[in-house]
Amino acid sequence: MFKRETLLDQLKTSENWDVIIIGGGATGLGVALDCTTRGYKTLLLEQVDFAKGTSSRSTKLVHGGVRYLAQGNIDLVREALYERGLMLQNASHLVSNQSFIIPNYRWWDNFFYTVGMKVYDFLSGKLSFGKSIRIKKSETIARLSTLKTDKLKGGVVYHDGQFDDSRLAVNIAQSCIEEGATVLNHVKVKNLQKDDNGLVNGVVAIDTETHTEYTLNANTVINATGVFSDEVLQMDNKSAENSIRPSQGIHLVFDKSFLPGNDAIMIPKTDDGRVLFLVPWHNRVVVGTTDTLLDSHSLEPKALDKEVDFVLETANRYLNKKASKADVLSIYAGLRPLAAPKDKSEKTKEISRSHKIIVSDSELITITGGKWTTYRRMAQDTVDKVIELKKLPSSKCKTQNIKIHGSNGTVDRANHLYIYGTDQKGIAQLVKENPELGELLHPRLEFTKAEIIWAVRHEMARSIEDVLARRVRILFLDAKAAIEIAPLVGELLRVELNETDDWRVEQISEFIQIADQYILK
């Protein structure tokens, strides 16, 4: 079902599509799932890999946005809290309820954040993750053993969601295919097709592996390329103004010893006005983020020195265990596709995170902005807009209660394979058939060879990077270990994909070049 050859055959045999979606991040995949479950013939094309850009580089939170509450953006918070609840219901293997503690060093903060979090609780309604409570200094210290205690007055505990972003993207891609969509990574859209009236009616795309070109027709084309939206808008109209102003956020990953308990820390006020999170993730700790306006964007954004210093400095103000550059296991940077501000004075933290749908004169539909938590709602609004434009027959949205591939009732987080949900059985079967696949990939890591094979056979991974960055998250958890196992992973892939030794050598070299940027020097 998830075989590339089968999916490519569908490109050759289909004359017309109802919808072609460009972009395989959270937004594009959400739109594809929405379209195919409404009964439309759906094709999604991603130039590199699912969630390659922003969607694999988040703070790993499914949240309403405490920051937006402080800005008074009640509607956005309410919508995101509702969607957070749906994500937990529909992808229980990847989304979990995470307790956060806001440490308070002034009596006034204790009162202020208790009241603020009660509003947050209230807005989540029936889909609440749990009540926020005030805790004493003694309990705060007991739960956060690495927290600075000097002048500590107590803490406020609240609940939000935590997840694995690119794993969810891959599972949504699988769900799309199971629901009848054609979803392909490593296929790049080169041009848009137009009819005699100048309306967009298809795309020209190229399979980046075989360099085969396809001309594909569609009733409607949706641009869901995040920070790359302007490139597609400029394919449509060379003089289109930029609609996106990318803002960069970086994250540092540390060993679990920096935050040994089960709670995350939320630092509500930093020097740049953002909040800083320390979040347990895959038995490590993710610390971030920053907010730096950029003039350009790339598939592999690089963290700036000043961003690294800011995250370390801010975290160390609250930790009694000093974090240094040498302790960083991996560093990653992501770009937020913020709507371009009207004037230069606007600060990124004040640019709305709510999404925006742009309808071009050519009837190209572009969806921008938003965040992971609201991906499903963004998709619903986009498809409703296409129906309103009479580009698709009317049909109601069905994604509110659709279980995502792998979702299951019971989750044992003690076993790192829990993220596969119902697919754990398949991985166990691989090991049963070939016990060698049960071997660990690296002495410092919990991951096995079987997970590499599974990623290629069932999760559409095509390269070492696809596997180690977005299927098995080693590049994000321990970049040095990722480089050390690249040759082994390259060989497993070479055999599985029936490739040559030259291919393997090239793969290793390409991966090391990328992985090197995840090591803090």
UniProtKB/TrEMBL annotation:
<feature type="domain" description="FAD dependent oxidoreductase">
    <location>
        <begin position="18"/>
        <end position="344"/>
    </location>
</feature>
<feature type="domain" description="Alpha-glycerophosphate oxidase C-terminal">
    <location>
        <begin position="365"/>
        <end position="501"/>
    </location>
</feature>
<keyword id="KW-0274">FAD</keyword>
<keyword id="KW-0560">Oxidoreductase</keyword>
<dbReference type="GO" id="GO:0046168">
    <property type="term" value="P:glycerol-3-phosphate catabolic process"/>
</dbReference>
<dbReference type="Pfam" id="PF16901">
    <property type="entry name" value="DAO_C"/>
</dbReference>
<keyword id="KW-0285">Flavoprotein</keyword>
<dbReference type="GO" id="GO:0006071">
    <property type="term" value="P:glycerol metabolic process"/>
</dbReference>
<dbReference type="InterPro" id="IPR038299">
    <property type="entry name" value="DAO_C_sf"/>
</dbReference>
<keyword id="KW-0319">Glycerol metabolism</keyword>
<dbReference type="InterPro" id="IPR000447">
    <property type="entry name" value="G3P_DH_FAD-dep"/>
</dbReference>
<comment type="similarity">
    <text>Belongs to the FAD-dependent glycerol-3-phosphate dehydrogenase family.</text>
</comment>
<dbReference type="InterPro" id="IPR031656">
    <property type="entry name" value="DAO_C"/>
</dbReference>
<dbReference type="InterPro" id="IPR006076">
    <property type="entry name" value="FAD-dep_OxRdtase"/>
</dbReference>
<dbReference type="InterPro" id="IPR036188">
    <property type="entry name" value="FAD/NAD-bd_sf"/>
</dbReference>
<dbReference type="Pfam" id="PF01266">
    <property type="entry name" value="DAO"/>
</dbReference>
<dbReference type="GO" id="GO:0004368">
    <property type="term" value="F:glycerol-3-phosphate dehydrogenase (quinone) activity"/>
</dbReference>
<protein>
    <submittedName>
        <fullName>Glycerol-3-phosphate dehydrogenase</fullName>
    </submittedName>
</protein>
